[in-house]
Amino acid sequence: MVYESPKTLEVCNVKKENNKVSRLQRAQWLRAAILGANDGLLSTTSLMIGVGAAQEGQWFMILSGLAGAVAGACSMAVGEFVSVSTQRDIEINVNQEHRSKENSSLQEIKIETPKNDQPIAPVRTPAMKAVTKMKEEEENEVLPNPYKAGAASALAFLCGSVFPLVAAMAVGDYTARIVVVVVVASVALALFGGIGAVVGGSCVRSSATRVLVGGWISMVVSYSLLKPLDGITDKKMGKSD
């Protein structure tokens, strides 16, 4: 049986904790990217379905999707930038308060030694040095970058918007175009929901079902609310008798 000293066990525990934190951070970024792509997919599809209900022209539908994709990506980028910037400021303030408290505590603790005697230096084993170094690296961990977060959110939103846009460009017939857009969006929603469930550790089937049903409800509401405007647009464009 191999005997491991308490210091060695402490080093191993710190390494495991750092690996766990690193995995959690990667999972959060991946999940945020999936949610951003899902948002872009659903928002753009619902907008295109709504515009398609009011106006049958293919380019009206495509241009509305492009406008929604660009506007949504900008909105996601600005929102994520503001959110991460606020988080960064809070973390900086908390770290500064923590360091100031530690410094004040160290200043209060004074070891009285005779004038002719030298203070005894604390004994630091290699294991203790490794633990101290890991803790310092953890405390000095790189703060979240709001520019990267904003760019990642915008890119994820645009990636999700590509699916309905490509489907609308590929089909010219009005009825077939609506059906193809809905089918492509449904498959992509189920896929994103399943990937998000795998990353988050939840049930894939229930997660994909929730995302899919929510997407269908959004599409139906958008189509139903704007379909009555079909007759008004026909009159404006001189298509009615």
Automatic annotation (TrEMBL):
Reaction catalysed by this enzyme: Fe(2+)(in) = Fe(2+)(out)
- Show the stretches that span the lipid bilayer: 29-53, 59-78, 154-172, 178-200, 207-226
Q: What is the lineage of its organism?
A: Eukaryota, Viridiplantae, Streptophyta, Embryophyta, Tracheophyta
InterPro entries under this entry? Ccc1_fam
Report keywords, A-Z: Ion transport, Iron, Iron transport, Membrane, Transmembrane, Transmembrane helix, Transport, Vacuole
- Record protein name field: Vacuolar iron transporter
Membrane topology reported for the UniProt record: Multi-pass membrane protein
Localization in the cell: Vacuole membrane
Question: Which Gene Ontology terms describe the biological processes this protein takes part in?
Answer: intracellular manganese ion homeostasis
Q: Is-annotated flag, keyword Ribosomal protein?
A: no
Q: Which family does it belong to?
A: Belongs to the CCC1 family.
MF GO annotations: iron ion sequestering activity; iron ion transmembrane transporter activity; manganese ion transmembrane transporter activity
Q: Gene Ontology terms, cellular component aspect?
A: vacuolar membrane
Tell me what organism the protein belongs to: Lactuca saligna
Question: What does this protein's UniProt record list under function?
Answer: Vacuolar Fe(2+) uptake transporter.
